[in-house]
Task: inverse folding
């Protein structure tokens, strides 16, 4: 190939640039040094990168809805079909007890947060590997990747909500007055639990590539032990305490309490769930931050 | 002048495993742990590599610093540390100002998204604010020259269009400090020229630029200073022309001779086999470098296996970019009528003051002529190379001029001037 490069002549004198003004504003001094021994979270930095977080979320949503043939319908179909199968198998054939709530309402209200949680865990665990090109080529707080990955399925959750509302209307179930306002809190519990697990698994995933194969197994068992197709109140009290170690059991029980006016969850058990969730979140974050400086070298 | 980048004793250690198979499967890891427990692990010891060793330097505000060195010398590692993609093992660096880094053109481009959407995505990843992208959107699209397809998914773009759009985003990044890696290696000449032009604008506007390149001409032309990294250490830090010369000197010195151990591996056919090729000076010594004012020779040794064919040697002389200076052939070989079997040595003498400064590479061939065709019986591309330098004593074609003189050749012409109005 014969290409000749015509090099531009050097500009004689530095000119002041028009954009100088706003650059001054976010002028920062960085100190680059060996990774700290103890993890910490630079909240100011995260705030600085908030726009990138929204961009990453926006990208995943747009790409997801562009790529799939059924688009939005997919977010409706998956929970609807899952709920349908549960209702037939567990409600009709196995005749699971459902207290005073109609069984279909009970199931749909359980499936919606569970679907969110499964998607959030799956996405966030894969988030570092899925964004390999970014991790090795540009700096930003890596925490944004699993974080964006648990935010994205909230859209699917919102799309699936009308299914729940329709079923609730059909069976005449209504939110429990003031308790209804607390519904987002229980999704929040699922959110932080999924994020904690996402931190942990995405970190492990960078090192051990066979770990993602174990996630679907975990996610298939989870609905069975979270009370998706039955109400936690129906099982013996001494087992309920064991179930409360799983934050999703409280998330679903609380969500049903808020949305369907079911009996309130046992608050002692809820406290156990919240504690487990907090341990997962902070533990996951600490592990993530500890290994973060090495991601680009290992990936 | 204020310091924009200050690096003190930066070192980076990789475990060998970390470079090659840093990741693996949990199953393998567990198997290894188990093997270690029963004392059956052979590859137990971890080897370490220092990709950077005690690298210190500083860059003043508005300075353009070039980073040269061969592959694996630590340039990319240094850049990755300065861009905070990875952390140093020891040492520290202080960076004052808004940093923009360009380790790749089009980082994060998503094929499903349209050109416009990718501008926002890529700009945001490179650290631009949404407001800033919005303001520059029209300029970015116009500069890219893909206006017509801006709302088409990037997966339908030709690769050239994708690169142009990506570069256009990068070009509108306005950091105070720009760290660039080998961006010039991609794209066609026009694209490279635009990249260089854009970097010129930035440095002209008082921006600090640190850039890694294998394009020595660009380093020479654009940089105020250059650093040569070798084996993770700073070999030299100084004037770009000096640093580039010394670096090239060390890199291209190894190609001054080539020989083949046996006829099997040697280039050739049943008529002739090449034995060796050397770059030499007038005294017949093998050379890595030659003074532009002296004669250089290319000596080819070969074995003629069959008699009767009028063989002759041919050279193709080109520079590192592959631009051909000239082809030359022996028009009067001593056996014009017939050749005998045996071992021969033929040397071509390249006159002084012909080749330009820089690395010269030579392809050699042994041919017969079956008019109008030239048949190559033995040929070797890039057989030898040497570095032509000009000590700048004033008696070469550059006279007392010290700037860049472009061209593949640089002959010393005879000039005549006469006064006409006397």
Result:
């Amino acid at each position: 190939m014969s290409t000749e490069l015509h090099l531009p002549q050097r500009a004689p004198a530095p000119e002041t640039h028009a954009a100088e003004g706003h650059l001054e504003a976010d002028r920062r001094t960085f100190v680059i040094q060996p990774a700290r021994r103890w993890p910490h979270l630079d909240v100011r930095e995260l705030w600085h990168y908030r726009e990138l977080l929204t961009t990453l979320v926006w990208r995943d949503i747009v790409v997801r809805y562009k790529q799939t043939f059924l688009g939005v319908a997919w977010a409706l179909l998956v929970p609807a079909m899952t709920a349908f199968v549960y209702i037939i198998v567990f409600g009709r054939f196995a005749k699971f007890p459902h207290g005073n709530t109609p069984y279909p309402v009970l199931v749909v209200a359980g499936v919606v947060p569970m679907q969110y949680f499964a998607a959030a865990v799956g996405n966030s665990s894969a988030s570092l590997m899925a964004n390999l090109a970014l991790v090795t080529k540009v700096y930003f707080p890596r925490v944004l990747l699993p974080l964006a990955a648990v935010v994205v399925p909230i859209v699917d959750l919102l799309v699936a909500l009308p299914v729940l509302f329709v079923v609730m209307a059909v069976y005449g179930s209504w939110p429990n007055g003031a308790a209804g306002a607390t519904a987002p809190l229980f999704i929040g519990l699922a959110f932080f639990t999924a994020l904690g697990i996402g931190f942990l698994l995405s970190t492990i995933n960078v090192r051990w590539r066979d770990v993602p194969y174990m996630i679907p197994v975990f996610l298939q068992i989870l609905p069975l032990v979270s009370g998706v197709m039955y109400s936690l109140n129906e099982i013996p009290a001494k087992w309920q305490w064991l179930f409360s170690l799983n934050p999703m059991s409280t998330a679903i029980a609380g969500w049903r309490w808020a949305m369907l006016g079911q009996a309130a969850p046992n608050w002692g058990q809820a406290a156990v769930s919240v504690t487990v969730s907090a341990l997962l979140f902070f533990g996951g974050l600490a592990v993530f931050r500890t290994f973060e400086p090495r991601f680009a070298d290992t990936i | 002048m204020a310091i924009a980048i200050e690096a003190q004793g930066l070192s980076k250690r990789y475990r060998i495993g970390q470079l090659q198979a840093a990741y693996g499967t949990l199953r393998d890891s567990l198997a290894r742990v188990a093997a270690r427990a029963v004392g059956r692990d052979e590859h137990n010891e971890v080897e370490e590599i220092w990709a950077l060793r005690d690298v210190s330097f500083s860059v003043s505000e508005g300075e353009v610093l070039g980073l040269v060195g061969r592959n694996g010398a630590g340039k990319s590692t240094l850049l990755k540390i300065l861009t905070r993609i990875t952390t140093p093992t020891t040492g520290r660096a202080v960076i004052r100002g808004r940093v923009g880094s360009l380790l790749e053109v089009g980082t994060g481009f998503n094929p499903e998204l349209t050109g416009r959407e990718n501008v926002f995505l890529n700009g945001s990843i490179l650290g631009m604010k949404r407001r800033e992208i919005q303001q520059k959107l029209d300029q970015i699209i116009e500069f890219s020259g893909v206006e017509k397809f801006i709302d088409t998914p990037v997966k339908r773009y030709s690769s050239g269009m994708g690169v142009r759009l990506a570069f256009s985003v990068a070009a509108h990044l306005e950091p105070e400090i720009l760290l660039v890696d080998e961006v010039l290696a991609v794209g066609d000449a026009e694209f490279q020229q635009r990249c260089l032009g854009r970097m010129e604008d930035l440095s002209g506007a008082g921006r600090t630029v640190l850039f890694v390149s294998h394009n020595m001409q660009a380093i020479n032309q654009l940089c105020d200073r250059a650093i040569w990294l070798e084996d993770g250490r700073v070999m030299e830090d100084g004037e770009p022309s000096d640093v580039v010369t010394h670096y090239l000197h060390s890199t291209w010195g190894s190609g001054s001779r080539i020989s083949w151990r046996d006829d099997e591996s040697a280039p050739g056919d049943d008529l002739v086999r090449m034995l060796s090729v050397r770059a030499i000076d007038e005294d017949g010594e093998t050379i890595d470098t030659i003074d532009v004012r002296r004669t250089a020779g290319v000596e080819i040794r070969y074995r003629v296996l069959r008699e009767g064919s009028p063989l002759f040697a041919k050279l193709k002389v080109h520079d590192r970019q592959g631009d051909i200076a000239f082809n030359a052939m022996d028009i009067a070989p001593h056996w014009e009528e017939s050749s005998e079997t045996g071992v021969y040595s033929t040397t071509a003498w390249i006159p002084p003051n012909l080749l330009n400064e820089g690395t010269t590479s030579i392809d050699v061939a042994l041919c017969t002529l079956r008019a109008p065709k030239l048949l190559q019986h033995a040929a070797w591309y890039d057989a030898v190379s040497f570095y032509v330098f000009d000590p700048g004593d004033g008696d070469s074609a550059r006279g007392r001029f010290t700037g860049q003189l472009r061209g593949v050749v640089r002959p010393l012409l005879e000039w005549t001037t006469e006064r006409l109005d006397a």
